[in-house]
Structures are given as structure tokens and as C-alpha cells.
Amino acid sequence: MTSTVFLQRIADLYDEFKQHDARQSDRLKRYRNIEAESAKLLAMLVRSQQSKRILEIGTSTGYSTLWLAEAAKAVGAKVQTLEINAFRSAQAKKYAEEFGLEHFIDFWVGDASVYLAEANDPFDFILLDAERGSYVSYWEDLKRLMQSCGSSLIIDNVISHAAEVKEMLELIRLDDNFMSTILPVGAGLCLVVAR
């Protein structure tokens, strides 16, 4: 798939997902995918950092996964994506196949806390875009998985849902092993880098 075809197809998919969410009154039935400009920035960061091991926590229907996988393909990397909802993970896998990106993604279904607790190999790039109430409980494992200097963690929704991520951002701020900044892109991204 050429980059022009990818950009057109991903834009159409984003519109489709936004229309779906607009019809849902129940928050949990919405796909709640990352904003288009945030997803594009993630792909740019993967490319510029030449990230080889990419972890996504919260696949949903795979919008951000596709952007990460397209960047992973460009730099010779792989995306490990975690989703608790098996149906959504299956949807994301279907889209990955449509885009020809399935070989660059490992789909894992289950509670992210279980995966994080058992994971041993560090990641150079981590996207955290899941249920915000769990973030604090992930922090110790995330720190362990960001061992190398320059490893990046991106947390979504830090402006749109500031109160829900406040405790997590404070934990990061107080940790001398990490630097962080808020990027006013999309719903707000927090970029965390290991020192």
C-alpha cells in the first residue's frame, strides 16, 4: 500500500470510527480512538527515534495500531498491542489485514496488567491509551519496561481528562529517572522519556 493510499484509507477509517462514536450514548460502546493528529505524531516519533520494539496498551479497533504498524514497517520494527476486549481486538486485526500490516503487529487479548507484570524485554516506544483508572497500577511495570535511556512513553488524553490522569502524571513528575512534558496535540499527549 503506497503512502498516499494509506493516508486516504486511514482518513476514511477515522471518519467511520468518529461517526460510530457519535451514535453511541454509552461511553464504553464508543471506540474512543486517538485523534488523527495524535496518531500521525506517534508515527513520526517512531520513525524519528527508529523505535524497534513498540508497545500499545489499548488497541480498541486499531486506528492508532495501524499508524504505529505503518511506521514500524518503515523502520523494521514490530508492534505489540494489548486489548482487553476480544471483539475489538478481532476488529483491529481485520483492519490490519485490509491494510496489509498484520505481519508488523502482535495482537494480545487480556488485562494489560497481566501482560505488563510478565513482560521482561524493554520497549523503546510505549503508547498508553486505555482505561485511565488503571494507569497508576501500571507505572512500576512501565518503568521497568523503559529501561534504556531514550525510551519513550506517550500517554493520551492528558488535557481532555486531566483529573483522571493527574495522579499518574504526578508519579512521573516526582521520579528523577524520567523527564516529561505535555504536548497540546489532539486530546493532549504526555511525552515521558527515560533519562
Automatic annotation (TrEMBL):
Q: Which Pfam families match?
A: Methyltransf_3
Signal sequence residues: none
Q: Which GO terms describe its molecular function?
A: O-methyltransferase activity
SUPFAM superfamilies given in the database record: S-adenosyl-L-methionine-dependent methyltransferases
Note whether Repeat occurs among the keywords: no
Q: Which UniProt keywords apply?
A: Methyltransferase, S-adenosyl-L-methionine, Transferase
CDD domains, sorted: AdoMet_MTases
Task: Answer yes or no on keyword S-adenosyl-L-methionine.
Answer: yes
Query: Can you name this protein?
Result: Methyltransferase
